[in-house]
Write a structure and sequence with these properties.
Length: about 600
Amino acid sequence: MSVLRCHQAVGLALSLACAASAATYEVAQQHPSASDEGPGTAARPWKSLGKAAAMAQAGDRVAIRAGVYREQVVVKQSGTAQAPIRFEAAPGEHVVVTGADRLTGWQKADDKRPIYRAAWPHRFIAWNRSMTHPDDDYHRVVGRCEQVAVDGYLLRQALGADQLGPGSFFADTTNRALLVWDMGSRDLNKAFVEASTRQEALRVEGDHVETRGLRFRYAANMAQHGAVVLAGRHNTLEDCVVEAMNSSGAAFVGEDAVARRCVFRDNGQLGFGAGRAHRLLFTECLVENNNTKGFDRGWEAGGNKLALCRDAVLERSRFLRNRGNGIWFDIGNTNCTVRHCLIADNDDAGIFYEISFRLVARDNVLTGNGFAATPGAWGAQAGISLSSSPGCVIERNLIAGNREGFNFREQTRVTPTIEDRAARAVWNHDETIRNNLIVFNRDAQVWGWFDVKDGRHWPAGGRLAQPPAAAAAAKPGDIAGAYTAKTLEGQPQGLTLEALRLRFEGNVYFSGPGQGGFKWGPSWARHKSYASLGEFQSDLGIDTAGRTMDPSFADIRRLDLRVNAERLRQLGNAYPQGAIPGVLLGIDPGSPAADAPSSQHGQ
């Protein structure tokens, strides 16, 4: 037997042995016999999750009974593929893991105002001027880690006792005291007050660990740090809720992680972040209303941000009403996929793929994105925006009712890659945008925001017509201005539109009254607006087989995007295939042609 086969056989035997000896433990903090000194049985369960995390071995299952577990759970043990370690809420049980502790013993701290004081021994690393970005007074408040909730409602933070008002708190780390003014000016001894004291709720460092059915909230995590962290390999987060964290809800930093049927909502900065999370599978999830603290949307905020990830898949999920981009890939991501998702009503772009490589975005619905007044967010307020990211395929997406439909955003950019930290030039080229339905977008259905001096986005015959002074102009307040290349070293030379190989194939477009059509070039430099698809096609030569057609949706306001059978036949491949959560697709049963044969499109 070869050494490899021998190791595989030993590993399988070990896994089978683990599975055979697997135990089921219980944690039940409210059980009268609960104790971490007990055996962890149903009759004598453990009281804390930390005890279970320390004891569980490969193949073991930990059933968790109802309760609010005020602890940081760290799992260092590993399971195996055949015998994972499982932590799960017992059926029907409401299990909360929180980074906050209850505070009691409040004392009146002000003779004239209803401000109360409690001891506060905690000092967190806060976002301040010693760090690099954002470096401003606004983020001195936003970047603080403390959180206080009264009866389940978070209060706003102040930086001094003199700034306190109804519904606010001040963490006086010098005098080690917490000062709180309740929204209703109540005596806090008669209210339920919690304050975040832990920076993480869950950290999984082992491999093959599955976590199911838990609710995580109220961690005091700093910017760009998740409160639920999957750091090992092959870990699963399933049917969990991650909410109201100070910064990011979750962080996926281990390979082959899975998030399934989870909710990431109301978190201070991001729903989740991911770094080097190769082969992340994010499926059937809801990412909603994140960046509640108002972090700079051009820096890192909104639904999520992924960096340096390979083969990540985001599918069958909803990204809704996030205060920033709905889905954001930034820095060196490679071969990532977004499919069968509803991406709606996010402040900035629905999908923003930035200085990365080879995205496939297929069969998604993107609507209502990009309408926030984010300064300097040009080119990042569309249903889908490709920002200096080559080799992408955008197909069969329904992009309707956004500020702009599909965009290119181009600057002189560089990025590290997964294999090499050295910065290298990156730009939009070899892009395929095919069989998409791009309709009813307010400012433009397609816009090429190329803020580059070399005029590469114009055909060779018209490239020299751009005045150098106009090409050199830059839009004030550009959100990515600090991240452009400092020199032209390594940047491409002599490019033309033909050399970029940007291919629009078989798309269907439509503009309603007062809506834009096709625009090329940034508004502050040489640019052209095309009143018709024909003008866009003949002038730039990058669109083939594009058509103009009103899809006549059943009710776009209710996300009923069904059409009559004849229109569906005419759209052909320019319509999503398969089901998308929260959206009705296919044949409109109320249309005159409802009795026509059914199509392959999902309902």
